[in-house]
């Protein structure tokens, strides 16, 4: 019997832990000792749930996608995280972490961002709580996600383009950690996914678990059963996936299928399929699967989606894949784009390219007529319109 909860040292099986510079030890230790006390405190719960309801707009709908269901011969429900304030699931986590930071007496917030959704969500809650906000974002992502950069600046955040390495998410995270090392006293680092040193993977999963909590209730209203046959989500660092599956991990009848980014193909050398390609290593404070060369150098991932091109994976997801609790499929750029255009035409919903990877699973699996499938639509496609327009022009050639 596998356990899917984190142990006291921050491990899920062999993955996890806290591998951090000495200067951050006190900060991370303080967080580790306090996060559960704070998260479970009735006053925190009340503030958190009030904001989720009145500010974020939760619960997000569970929408029965009639035409998509007809096409794939099963019952497909979309968990509409794209309808949250700021356009993705990221805000569930940043609201929780900023309340936590306040309770710990921190006055300055830093964050890393890839697609910019976590950056926007962090800048949003900093504006809401009147806190100083510094965002690190790879220069490549700054260029391909211009709209989100403008939003962060409008919200009052300082956005620092990172020019080291591949100039994407990994490099932005490196810079955020450097900043934290230089400002350990007043600064709180809001990590946007189920990655990083313990307790971050567990804390982010708990804050995102509002998704699976709602799925259970909503499914019961619609299908008179709390448990779907399949849960499908995209996975980069893994926070929307962790939130989608959290309250179903110990339900063996629920099949968990996660979609990672195959980029131009698993073996093309331009991929972000970490679970397929990764080997055990340490990145950003945790032991997990990591894309690395023969001599252990981190390899640069590639995906058309800025939110999925991370060379590691959250330790929970590494554990779920290793113990065969989850099935991980690699979805290529073209497959994700096909799925995005299909959803747009069939249901009138333009998804984020990240979420389109989850939709790409539908063509890869065979479902039965009576089976209930829940797909987490983690974000909306506004931020990806430039990419979509380019692809559409090319395809219509």
TrEMBL record:
<comment type="similarity">
    <text>Belongs to the TrpB family.</text>
</comment>
<comment type="pathway">
    <text>Amino-acid biosynthesis; L-tryptophan biosynthesis; L-tryptophan from chorismate: step 5/5.</text>
</comment>
<feature type="modified residue" description="N6-(pyridoxal phosphate)lysine">
    <location>
        <position position="90"/>
    </location>
</feature>
<dbReference type="InterPro" id="IPR023026">
    <property type="entry name" value="Trp_synth_beta/beta-like"/>
</dbReference>
<dbReference type="InterPro" id="IPR001926">
    <property type="entry name" value="TrpB-like_PALP"/>
</dbReference>
<keyword id="KW-0456">Lyase</keyword>
<protein>
    <recommendedName>
        <fullName>Tryptophan synthase beta chain</fullName>
        <ecNumber>4.2.1.20</ecNumber>
    </recommendedName>
</protein>
<comment type="subunit">
    <text>Tetramer of two alpha and two beta chains.</text>
</comment>
<dbReference type="InterPro" id="IPR036052">
    <property type="entry name" value="TrpB-like_PALP_sf"/>
</dbReference>
<dbReference type="GO" id="GO:0005737">
    <property type="term" value="C:cytoplasm"/>
</dbReference>
<keyword id="KW-0057">Aromatic amino acid biosynthesis</keyword>
<dbReference type="InterPro" id="IPR006654">
    <property type="entry name" value="Trp_synth_beta"/>
</dbReference>
<feature type="domain" description="Tryptophan synthase beta chain-like PALP">
    <location>
        <begin position="57"/>
        <end position="379"/>
    </location>
</feature>
<keyword id="KW-0028">Amino-acid biosynthesis</keyword>
<keyword id="KW-0822">Tryptophan biosynthesis</keyword>
<dbReference type="Pfam" id="PF00291">
    <property type="entry name" value="PALP"/>
</dbReference>
<comment type="function">
    <text>The beta subunit is responsible for the synthesis of L-tryptophan from indole and L-serine.</text>
</comment>
<keyword id="KW-0663">Pyridoxal phosphate</keyword>
<dbReference type="InterPro" id="IPR006653">
    <property type="entry name" value="Trp_synth_b_CS"/>
</dbReference>
<dbReference type="GO" id="GO:0004834">
    <property type="term" value="F:tryptophan synthase activity"/>
</dbReference>
